Amino acid sequence: MSLVPQYNYPAGTEITLYNEKMSICAMQENGYEMLNLETGEVGVTSFSKFAELQKSPAMKIGADAGLPSTELEMRLGNLKVAEQLAPPQQERGQFHHAFCCATAMLRTKLRREHGMPDLRLTGALLNDADNRKFICKVATEIFGKKVRPKGFRGGQNNEWVLYDGRTILKYLQIFDRLEVDDDVIAALATRDHLKGNNTKRIDWTLLQLMTQAWEEIGLDLKGPSVSNVHHHLEMLVFEENGRRIRNGLAKLVVPSHKTLKRHQQYLLNPTEFLVATKGERHALNKRGRGSTDLRGLFPGELVEADECKLSLISSAKERGYWENLSNEDQQTLEEIDKEIRTRLTLLVMIDVATRMPLAWVVSDKPKAEATLALLRMATRDKTKEKIKYGCEGDPAPAMGLGLVKTDNGVGLRNKTVVEGLLGTTAIYAAVRAYASADKPYVERLIGTTESLLIKLIHGYTGRKAGELPGYNSNANGLLDIDELYGILTRFFIDEYPSLRHMGVGMGGRRPAEVLKELNKTRGLFKMMDADQRRIHLGWKFEVTPNDEGVRVLSGIWFNSPEFQVAVDDHAVSKVSVFVDPENVNDATAIIPGVAREFRLQLQVTAFADLTIPEVLELTEAHRREDPAITEIYEDRIASTRRQRFDLLKQIGVERRLTRSHSTFEECRIKARHVFAGARIVRAPEGGQTVRPGDLTASMQGPGVFLIGDGNAAIDHQEANHSESPAVQLDGGVTFKGNDGITPAGPKSAEPRDLSQVPLGRPKKGGKFS
């Protein structure tokens, strides 16, 4: 059985338990008797429970409650330790402690020599030269600095001189009254912190006017100066002095600017004043408390992304092609250049665990597509950028993303980006905009990039409007986007990872070395599935498959055996193809109704390891040619076709070949012969019919019957309806050729049942037998 500790606390010890003030009354056999100082309730807490509570932050044990103050608190005004005093006071207290110890040793020595245990020191004994030498010798050894029995003549000096006997006795009495737990140095220190006249020397009415001036003018978001507040105070004092003169009182004197500023510092602390004049958001960024925790433990676990407009003017002119453009194209590009100069934005992503830049994108339109490009760059290999721009260091390798933090920017927080991250099993967290404490790591990266790199590039505009009045940014903004991206790439690969980082968890190490260390000890965050990465972060195309596979962007073919078999089995008309624009070696296809993805391989080997912009640029370069060369080849094609046509026509005339084509007039004549004998038979108007199977059924009402074979119409001849004989049935119903049914006489009162009419073959002449 383990030992249960039983701590012996004196009665009256103050204890704070769950924000309730309590005091220990007595120690019993079962535990401590506790008194609630707020409610007066008394209870018993067992020793085991008290020991467990002592380990938790819920319990705080303070000083004895209800006891009189100690000598230290009475003398120094509730100060208990020497560290609460100023350094000169602490040093003076050490000096006092040294000669008090030496004086106590002198007292013991004199009592032994004279055989008087009750011997008391007096001022005369302490002023004796031999005794003073003894005290100085011992005090020097304790204090560590030379202590002299008397000072030199000739003004002030920094030497430690022993006090007179009466002063030594005063400090010795304090030394003898001290308890074991008291801080001796603090108890023997001087009370310089209590010196001075702390009473108000400004009239109470003037203090009220100063407070009124700060409330009405000084605490405004427009940020007024102390002079503005002082002018308003002068007006208030002038009005108050008018009233005081009428009442026979003395005038108030307007205080100085410094006094007015000190009054503001007395009223509000710096944080409160910053909130009042700059706003809560600005105060949070400037004086908000950040986190000192290690938020990321291994690379890729936590990343932060942000975007900012570059304080830089760049050019959109494409190097190498400007001189080959026409005047109209140059004018169009100049307009595009002006637009891009005002909308250039940098997007960056940083890994929190290593402080390594993972991705950087320069865009003139910071929308969802730019953010997806940032995510694709962070999750892919960046060796191509290293080789292209001649970097010496190693960029961050391809890794997965665990938690991505961004603010509420339109380009960062939108449906497309969130769906893409969640589809790749990453976690997305949106933090507050303009709150640097929510994403401090990427904010520091952007600030460092601004101060170390951007301000040195040609075309820098400054952090705020009018900061560089003597520099013409528009005239010096000659870098195009490709040159700017190369400079940024070399900075994020070679320079920033090589700098010493003094952030939390870095300890002066370099991000590149931290990445190597964590890669060996903890490993990188798991990679994303390649197909899922293309589906959620890549470009989507709806295409029709054929025997060659699928084609995107009118020239990039992809195919695989499994995909071809699936297309033939399901006979689909459209499939979805997802391509990584940074690497066209593979693509992912999804067939409707098929529960799997198909990985397709690039079929055009000339495009291997290229990006889609590089493929389009290569294709455009192949199709681009000099207009003069185009005219030569077009003339050659037209002349060759004319010669071939004339040759074939000549051969046909010489060999008397029949024509295989017709003229427009011949086509019209043949059409008239084709349609000349055609006869159109009109359907009878107003004809009445019955349902199938009801021809001879017992029913009332008229019906249509085929009677006899009649005169059949001859093809290509007009029918003569006037010669058709009329057939009359019982009841007055007459059938007359193809004219339908017409009544032969007056209608009967009741309709007859036609099923009772005998039907037979009519005789010649159209009569029934």
TrEMBL record:
<protein>
    <submittedName>
        <fullName>Integrase-like protein</fullName>
    </submittedName>
</protein>
<dbReference type="InterPro" id="IPR036397">
    <property type="entry name" value="RNaseH_sf"/>
</dbReference>
<dbReference type="InterPro" id="IPR001584">
    <property type="entry name" value="Integrase_cat-core"/>
</dbReference>
<feature type="domain" description="Integrase catalytic">
    <location>
        <begin position="295"/>
        <end position="519"/>
    </location>
</feature>
<dbReference type="GO" id="GO:0015074">
    <property type="term" value="P:DNA integration"/>
</dbReference>
<dbReference type="GO" id="GO:0003676">
    <property type="term" value="F:nucleic acid binding"/>
</dbReference>
<feature type="region of interest" description="Disordered">
    <location>
        <begin position="720"/>
        <end position="769"/>
    </location>
</feature>
<dbReference type="InterPro" id="IPR012337">
    <property type="entry name" value="RNaseH-like_sf"/>
</dbReference>
